[in-house]
Structure formats: structure tokens, C-alpha cells
Specification:
- The structure is a single chain.
- This protein has helices at 22-40, 56-64, 69-86, 104-116, 170-178, 187-198, 229-234, 236-239, 249-254, 267-281, 312-319, 321-330, 342-372, 404-421, 425-446, 448-451, 456-477, 482-492; strands at residues 6-10, 14-15, 44-52, 93-96, 120-130, 135-137, 155-164, 183-185, 204-205, 207-209, 225-227, 259-263, 288-292, 295-297, 338-340, 375-376, 494-497, 500-505.
- By secondary structure, the protein is an alpha/beta fold.
- The strands form 5 sheets. Strands 1, 2, 3, 4, 8, 12 and 13 form a 7-stranded parallel sheet that branches. The chain has a 4-stranded antiparallel sheet with strand order 6-5-7-9.
- Strand 2, helix 1 (22-40) and strand 3 (44-52) form a beta-alpha-beta unit.
- The longest helix is centred in the C-terminal third of the chain and has 31 residues, at 342-372.
- The chain starts with 5 loop residues before the first strand and ends in a 16-residue tail after the last strand.
- The relative contact order is 0.11.
- The chain binds 5'-O-[(L-methionyl)-sulphamoyl]adenosine.
- Residues 12-15, 23-24, 26-27, 52, 233-234, 236, 262-263, 265-266, 294-295 line the site of 5'-O-[(L-methionyl)-sulphamoyl]adenosine (MSP).
Length: 521
């Protein structure tokens, strides 16, 4: 199974014990930006997301709500799908682990392959189980006797289960991670995984006894056990491509994954357990594991009792999907924890969307409309250099004396692309806003609104340069803010012809791209 010229990106599948929160939204947006970027580069891309619907956590929550688990998850899954649609997440498929046709055959086949290798055995296990993590925890991991992620006491469990020989793969995993054959980003998480291997990997409980109702995929061959929810869930990355069925063209085309995006609490499952399962089954390994941080609200973990939970839908409804996508892309490091506050959201919205981008687009279009009836055509490239004062815009001093097209092709675009290739969405977004700042500076420098009185021809050249810059802004923000990108494209009326510079037939702007948020001071 080898693949060429394709790109496969996944999010974690989200627990369907509730609707989506801002952390899920963040992960979906990160993956969506990279998927859209890759498609824009002409790469055949498959973007997978979905929901994790089995396990005790979900069963118990459904029971607490007095609902049938299947009905309960169906309701929550719909909330994920609604959110994805609203925030324009362009996943190619949405996998559900309760899907008996699409997912189960793959999960069962994977189990069987691993069993065939002799990597599954029966043993009795006694341990502390955290239902929130769906994982056994060691004493060392507990803080004040509680799971640090779920702030809950684990349950003592003694069971006869099937076990997976994870320990057998220690040396192989160590080599693969050290050499970056499985690249874990950021480096700190790679080191964390190497330290876990160094401390000794234990075999993993791979099944759970059947509950009062069957809620999970039965272990093949008629035992009264269900496949451990993490084994079931991890299999989604291949079942969604047709593994375990005879329709596996996608698997051939897209597997192995180019990147699995996951939060910092579930790295171990993706960097150790999952590759070991694949090694056992003789399948190729994912190339990158991109670990993002956790979003806090006002510096604290989000919790209903503190009342600081950020509701993604509220922001989308009030300010638009693109505004939320912008905040997540630009304000949060894709490799570290980040904070979300309404104050900061409003501040950057006003500064960088209403003023920065929005204002630049309206000013430029208004001048083009007023002075040139919306039409600017050049038959030659217009080389009016930037003469910015050194202190005007930081980071671009070295480019004094260069034209806008030159700066875009030599600095902005290469920077933007190389950061996207490194999954550093925050820095590629910075490059775009670097260009926006530069175009603002260019207008300030040449003052076309004054120049029009004395030199119409030069004014036209100046505006051509700004429109040219905006054309590239619209291209670069497509992955980040797809609706805004298409609105700008439409307003610019760009014509591209071979071997000719770009011309514009602009439209009148009816309403600002981003209305300022007025705050009561
Ligand atoms: N179902 C498992 C994943 C199985 S993947 C084979 C799971 N689900 S989850 O719903 O709890 O989390 C889904 C993703 O959201 C994880 O990558 C998790 O790290 C991420 N996040 C959960 N809370 C988060 C924040 N507060 N901030 C950012 N991401 C967070 O784990």
C-alpha cells in the first residue's frame, strides 16, 4: 500500500456525550484550514472528522438523561454536524463509531489482524479506571487522588479482559519517534512520549466486559466482551477509508495519514498505542502527529460551574463564522495552550477585521469607484516602489524600495506557504496581516485621495498596486476565512490573463465586511 500525491488529515473523533464545545471547534478549524490550503495547492486531499460514540462515559450519560444511548448520541452528533456546517468545516467524510456498515467491519478486522499476530491475550486486571479518559490510570498520574483532566476519582476495577501487547513494540516505537519517522509536533510532546517509553510501556486492556446492554463493538468470536473504546475509536482513521470492506480505493489512495491532529490529553493513544496497533496489523504508520494545546477561558479551565464556557455558536451567530475562525487561527498558537476571552475577541475583531482588513477593502473600492468608475486596467506591470518610512511597519524594513508585486512574490507568499506546510497557521495568518499593514502603509505614503487632484495617472497606478495586494490577500485568506475571501474576490472583479498583469472591475461595496463591535466603556 503506497500513496503518492495525496494528503490525508484527521481530527480526533469527538465524544458524543454532549454537543461540541470551543475545543472541538478549534480542532476542526485547524484541520479545515490545512485541508483547504492543500486543496488550493492542487493536492488531492481527504479530510476526516467524526464522533466517538461508544464507551461507558456515553452509556452512563445517556442513562442519566433517561435516553436510549443510540437516540442520545444521534442528537449530539446532529449538533456537531450543525456546527461544522455553520463554521464551514469542509470535511470529506464524517465517521461515526456506531455506524455498523462503515465503521464496524474495519474495527473488527483490525482486531482480528492483531489477534492473528498473537498480540492479544487474556488476563485479569486490577486497576484504577477514569471514565472521563476511558483509560486505566497509574497512581503516579493522580493529583490528590483524582484524574487531573477530569477532576474525578477513578474507580477501582478488577476484570478479566483481553490485553494488547503494547510492551512488545517499545523499541520499535522508540526508534520511529526518535527518527521522526512518526513526527510528533511540538518537540516537547515528542520528548514526553520518549520519556513514557523510557519508563516502560505496559500492555493495554483491550476489551471491557459486556454491560447490561451491549454498547460497543462485540469482540469477535462470541465472548461477552466489547472492544475497548480506544481500540474501536482509533480504527476510525482507516475504517472511514474502507478498511475491512471491499470498497477500499480511498484506503489505497490516502493511507497512511499525513497528519492526525489531536489535543495534548490524547497524544499517548495516537503516538504509542495507535502506531503499535498498526505495526501489529502490518499497516503503514501515520507521518505526523500534531498536538495542539487546550483552550482556556480567561486563563481558567472552562467549566459550567465557573460560568466561563465559551459557546462557539454564540460567536458565530453574533459576529460570523469567519470572525471566530480568525480568532482561533491568529490568536492561539497551534502548538500550545491558548486563551479565549470576549474582551480579546472584540479587541482583535475591531482592530484587525473591522479596521485592518475591512477598512482597507472599503477605502480602496470607494476610491476606485469614485476616481475610475471601478475600472483599473494596466497593460504593463506597474512598478511604484514602496517608500515606507522605516518605523512605519515592523518586519518589512529590508524591503524599502521594492514594489508591491515584488514583495508579495519574494517575501509574503513564500513565508505564508512555508508556515502552512509546517502547520503553523498562526504565523501564516501573521504574514497575511503583514501584507494588509503594508498596503495600509502604502496608501498612507502616497495619499491617493490627495494625489488624484494633481496626478490621475499615478493615482491609478497606486490603486492598481493596492488592488493587486488585495487580490493576494483574498487568495491567502481562503483557507482561513472562506466567506470573506469569496466576498473580496467578487468585489475586486479580478481578470487574470496569461502574460498580462491583472485588471480589476470592482463592485460597489454595500456594507462593511465586518461591522465594528461597539462596546460600552
Ligand atoms: N474521543 C476521544 C478521541 C478519540 S480519537 C481516536 C476524545 N474525545 S473528546 O471529545 O474528549 O476530545 C476531542 C478532541 O478535542 C481531543 O483532541 C481533545 O484534546 C480536544 N479538546 C478537548 N477539550 C479541549 C479544549 N479545552 N481545548 C482544545 N482542545 C480540546 O478525546
Amino acid at each position: 500500500m503506497g500513496k503518492k500525491d495525496s494528503f490525508y488529515i484527521t481530527t480526533a473523533i469527538h465524544y458524543a456525550n454532549a454537543g461540541p464545545h470551543i475545543g472541538h471547534t478549534y480542532e476542526g478549524v485547524l484541520a479545515d484550514i490545512i485541508a483547504r490550503y492543500k486543496r488550493g495547492q492542487g493536492v488531492s486531499t481527504f479530510f476526516l472528522s467524526g464522533t466517538d460514540e461508544h464507551g461507558d462515559k456515553i452509556l452512563r450519560t445517556a442513562q442519566k438523561n433517561g435516553e436510549e444511548p443510540q437516540i442520545f448520541v444521534n442528537e449530539n452528533v446532529q449538533k456537531f454536524k450543525d456546527l461544522y456546517k455553520k463554521i464551514q468545516i469542509s470535511n470529506d467524510y464524517f465517521i461515526r463509531t456506531t455506524d455498523k456498515e462503515k465503521h464496524w467491519p474495519g474495527a473488527i478486522k483490525l482486531w482480528e489482524e492483531i489477534e492473528e499476530k498473537g498480540d492479544i491475550y487474556v488476563a485479569t486486571y486490577k486497576g484504577l479506571y477514569c471514565v472521563g479518559c476511558e483509560d486505566f490510570l497509574t497512581e503516579k498520574k493522580l493529583v490528590d487522588g483524582k484524574c487531573p483532566y477530569h477532576d474525578a476519582k477513578p474507580e477501582e476495577i478488577e476484570e478479566e479482559n483481553f490485553f494488547f501487547r503494547l510492551s512488545k513494540y517499545s523499541d520499535q516505537l522508540k526508534k520511529l519517534i526518535e527518527s521522526d519517522e512518526i513526527k510528533i509536533m511540538p518537540e516537547s510532546k515528542k520528548n514526553e512520549m520518549l520519556a513514557i517509553i523510557e519508563n516502560g510501556l505496559e500492555d493495554v486492556s483491550f476489551s471491557r466486559p459486556e454491560r447490561e446492554i451491549l454498547w460497543g463493538i462485540p469482540v469477535p468470536n462470541g465472548t461477552n466482551q466489547t472492544i475497548y473504546v480506544w481500540c474501536d475509536a482509533l480504527a476510525n482513521y482507516i475504517s472511514a477509508l474502507g478498511y475491512g470492506t471491499d470498497k477500499d480505493e480511498l484506503l489505497k489512495k490516502f493511507w497512511p495519514a499525513d497528519v492526525h491532529i489531536v489535543g495534548k490529553d490524547i497524544v499517548r493513544f495516537h503516538a504509542l498505542l495507535w502506531p503499535a496497533m498498526l505495526l501489529s496489523a502490518g499497516l503503514p504508520l501515520p507521518k505526523n502527529i500534531w498536538v495542539h494545546g487546550f483552550l482556556t477561558s480567561g486563563g481558567r479551565k472552562m467549566s459550567k460551574s465557573i460560568g466561563n464556557v465559551v459557546e462557539p455558536m454564540e460567536y458565530i451567530d453574533a459576529y460570523g463564522a469567519d470572525a471566530l475562525r480568525y480568532y482561533l487561527a491568529r490568536e492561539i498558537s497551534p502548538f500550545d495552550d491558548g486563551d479565549f476571552t470576549k474582551e480579546r475577541f472584540i479587541e482583535v475583531y475591531n482592530a484587525n477585521l473591522a479596521n485592518g482588513l475591512g477598512n482597507l477593502v472599503s477605502r480602496t473600492l470607494k476610491m476606485t469607484e469614485q476616481y475610475f468608475a471601478g475600472q483599473i486596467e494596466r497593460s504593463l506591470s506597474v512598478d511604484i516602489p514602496l517608500r515606507l518610512k522605516r518605523e512605519t511597519i515592523s518586519g518589512f524594513e529590508a524591503l524599502d524600495g521594492n514594489s508591491i508585486p515584488h514583495i508579495i512574490s519574494q517575501k509574503i507568499l513564500p513565508e505564508y506557504k512555508s508556515k502552512m506546510e509546517d502547520f503553523d497557521i498562526q504565523q501564516s495568518t501573521d504574514s497575511v496581516w503583514g501584507l494588509i499593514g503594508l498596503l495600509d502603509g502604502y496608501i498612507a505614503e502616497y495619499e491617493p485621495f490627495k494625489l488624484i487632484k494633481t496626478d490621475k495617472d499615478k493615482t491609478e497606478n497606486i490603486l492598481w498596486n493596492v488592488l493587486y495586494g488585495l487580490h493576494f490577500v483574498s487568495l491567502m485568506i481562503e483557507p482561513i476565512m472562506p466567506s470573506t475571501a469569496s466576498k473580496i474576490k467578487d468585489l475586486l472583479g479580478t481578470t487574470l490573463k496569461d502574460n498580462e498583469p491583472i485588471s480589476f472591475q470592482t463592485k460597489e461595496i454595500k456594507e462593511p465586511l465586518f461591522k465594528r463591535i461597539e462596546t460600552l466603556k
